[in-house]
Amino acid sequence: MAITVSATRQVLADAYKTIAGSNVAFISVHTADPGTTGANEAAGGTPAYERKQTTWTSGTGGVITGAQVTIDLPADTYTHVGLWKSATGGESDFIDKVAISSTTLGAQGQLLITPTFTQS
């Protein structure tokens, strides 16, 4: 059942952005489904791959949006983006995932990611 009250959806969306303890989260990129642990995270490259910090801002009607991040990636195929509580933490810091359109980089490159969460 979808939540019909816009203000209630926004309260729930705002709660999602504080799962990491603040309105900051870290974005990762994965070569396959990360499951519930953050598996298959990208690695390597020059410049080296690393998770990037985003800051959530509130919208209306159940939407929050994170600041766009630029992630350096080595050549590979990428299928998922992850959300973490920290820049380097392990599976206990993994928050969520989303499938993306499969993206293949034939050489070192970058992905620009703008995270959005919509509570329905």
From TrEMBL:
Any one Pfam family match given in the protein's UniProt record, by short name: Gp80
Protein name: Bacteriophage lambda head decoration protein D
Organism: Nocardia halotolerans
